[in-house]
Each structure stands twice: as structure tokens, then as C-alpha cells.
Q: What sequence folds into this?
């Protein structure tokens, strides 16, 4: 078969709000239960079968190494690595899908490989499956990658918008280590409650509660943003990113209010679609 000469992969971002790590002795059954928002614009990768440039990210090299190829990978992203948008998973998944598409290999197997690499680096547990399937507001029912994990979706109104504020950078392996006991202590209660009542309203309430309970949403931060909360349905914090769920007609007021506090908001849509993988012959 003639090899195509370019693949464009679009991967939405994922900001988990509630999560409970589940580790086994196999990376394919390791993952997390929980919920989060899948948003776009996300990461757009271009993978070509020549040895051109490649981002300086160990995940990308690990994927190409497992496929035994030296493809070129370039990407554009609205956000940086390390803040909490599931960016490392998006790059890993996008590279794996792009390489597999060029080689005529299975997308599902490529997604499994991306999940395994995320688990091995301890940079993600539930991001790959969420980004692969989309769903807007997702609910992870069984840990693992696409094909093994199970993911459901929570319906939401057409006018919901996501506004995020980058507050800090942090290491995911350190976060998972530091929070391990607390997550095991509080996680099951939140996940059971959301599975029992998988609605938008419950997602809002539990996401804020979980962020407070694990110490991401501090009293100090809540008092700082209190004046702006009236322009949102709710808010939560994941690692270094503050997330608001708001509505079309309140988005501008929320952004203005945040900017008065010196906080720069970014606007995203919920992404019902997951990854998109398109082959091109001449680019
Ligand atoms: N400029 C950079 N800033 C942060 N991390 C970087 C950078 N360049 C490469 N990396 C690598 O990218 C990975 C970042 O993974 P991490 O999971 O912390 O980020 P994320 O996916 O954006 O956040 P999260 O998983 O919490 O959503 C690490 O392995 C890190 O070594
Ligand atoms: C571990 C994690 C919080 C890192 O982004 C995420 O992958 C998740 O929700 O499992």
C-alpha cells in the first residue's frame, strides 16, 4: 500500500474535575474513574513520514520509538504543557494516532499505546480515553484506555461555555503521589454520587466539592473570585487551572470580572466529538 504523506490529528483537551486512580500491575487496566470536561479548541498535530522536526517531549519520542519510526511531528495548541489540560495525553494520543494512520495500523491499538505511555510516565490516567471519545462532560465508569475502559456522557445545555484561568504549573506525578491517600479517602463518595445522579447540576455541585476537599480550591482563591462566581454555573480547580462552567450570555461579563482581578480567562466549547484523524496526500 502506498504510504500517505501527511496526517492531521485534532485532539480535544480534557480537564478532569473528579478522579480516583486505580492502579493494577498492568498499564492497560490501570486508569481512573471520575469525570471532567472535554473541550476545544484542542491540539492539532501534523505527522509526516520523514525525519523532520519533533517537539522536545519525551512522550512523543516514546510513541515513535514503540512504532520503530522517526516520523516528523509538529503541533499547535492553545495551552501549555503542565498546567492541567491533559496536554501530555493529547500529544501522546495525537502522535500515536498519526503514526498508526500513516502505517495503516489500528486506531484503537494506537490509543491503548498512548494510554500505556501516559501511565508509565505517571502523567495521565483518564485523559486518553476522555480525549479519544469526547462527550463534552464525560463520566469514567471503568478505568483503562479506549477498548478497555468504559466512559459515559452527561448531557448539558447547548449554551454552556467553559472559561479557564491558568494559575500555575505543576507536576502530575508529584500531584498523584501527594494526593494518593486523600483521593482514596474522598474519591469513591463523589464518584458514587455522580453515577447515581449523572446530571449537569450534580456534576457542578460535586466538582466544586471535590476541588475543595482535595485542597485545590482554597478559601483564599474562593474569596478572590467570589464577585465573578455570579456569572458562572459553577467552578472547580484541577492542578494549575481554574475552570468555570458558564453560559453564552454571561461569558463576556465573566471575562471582564476576572480581568478586573488580574486574571486572564480563555473561552472553550464543550467538545462532543473526540479525536479526528484525516489523511492527506499532498501538503
Ligand atoms: N515546557 C514544558 N512544561 C511542562 N512540561 C513539559 C514541558 N516540556 C515537556 N514537558 C513534559 O510534559 C509532561 C507534562 O505532563 P503533565 O501531565 O504534567 O502535563 P499536562 O498533561 O499538561 O497536565 P495534566 O496531566 O495535569 O492535565 C511532563 O512529562 C514534562 O516532562
Ligand atoms: C491523573 C489525571 C488527573 C492527570 O491529568 C487524569 O489523567 C485523570 O483524571 O485520571
A:
Amino acid at each position: 500500500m502506498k504510504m500517505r504523506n501527511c496526517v492531521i490529528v485534532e485532539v480535544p483537551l480534557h480537564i478532569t474535575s473528579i478522579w480516583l486512580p486505580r492502579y493494577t500491575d498492568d498499564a492497560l487496566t490501570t486508569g481512573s474513574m471520575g469525570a471532567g470536561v472535554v473541550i476545544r479548541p484542542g491540539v492539532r498535530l501534523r505527522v509526516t513520514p520523514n525525519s523532520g522536526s519533533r517537539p522536545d517531549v519525551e512522550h512523543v519520542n516514546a510513541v515513535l520509538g514503540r512504532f520503530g519510526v522517526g516520523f516528523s511531528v509538529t503541533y499547535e495548541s492553545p495551552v501549555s504543557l503542565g498546567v492541567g489540560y491533559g496536554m501530555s495525553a493529547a500529544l501522546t494520543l495525537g502522535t500515536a494516532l498519526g503514526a498508526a494512520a500513516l502505517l495503516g495500523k489500528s486506531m484503537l491499538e494506537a490509543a491503548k499505546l498512548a494510554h500505556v505511555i501516559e501511565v508509565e510516565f505517571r502523567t495521565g490516567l483518564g485523559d486518553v480515553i476522555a480525549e479519544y471519545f469526547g462527550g463534552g462532560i464525560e463520566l469514567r465508569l471503568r478505568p483503562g484506555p479506549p477498548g478497555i475502559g468504559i466512559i459515559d456522557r452527561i448531557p448539558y445545555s447547548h449554551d454552556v461555555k467553559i472559561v479557564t484561568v491558568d494559575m500555575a504549573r505543576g507536576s502530575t506525578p508529584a500531584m498523584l503521589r501527594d494526593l494518593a491517600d486523600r483521593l482514596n479517602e474522598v474519591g469513591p463518595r463523589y464518584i458514587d454520587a455522580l453515577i447515581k445522579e449523572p446530571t449537569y447540576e450534580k456534576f457542578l455541585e460535586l466538582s466544586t466539592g471535590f476541588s475543595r476537599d482535595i485542597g485545590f480550591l482554597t478559601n483564599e482563591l474562593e474569596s478572590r473570585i467570589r464577585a465573578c462566581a455570579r456569572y458562572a454555573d459553577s467552578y472547580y480547580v484541577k492542578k494549575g487551572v481554574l475552570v468555570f462552567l458558564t453560559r453564552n450570555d454571561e461569558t463576556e461579563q465573566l471575562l471582564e470580572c476576572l480581568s478586573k482581578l488580574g486574571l486572564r480567562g480563555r473561552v472553550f466549547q464543550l467538545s462532543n466529538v473526540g479525536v479526528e484523524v484525516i489523511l492527506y496526500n499532498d501538503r
Q: What stands out?
A: The pocket of pantoate (ligand 2) is lined by residues 16, 19, 32, 34, 86, 124-127, 172, 176 (CB under 6 Å). The beta strands are 6-22, 31-48, 72-76, 137-142, 150-153, 160-166, 234-238, 241-247, 265-270, 276-280. DSSP finds eight helices and ten strands in the chain. The domain at 6-153+271-280 is CATH 3.30.230.10 (Ribosomal Protein S5; domain 2).
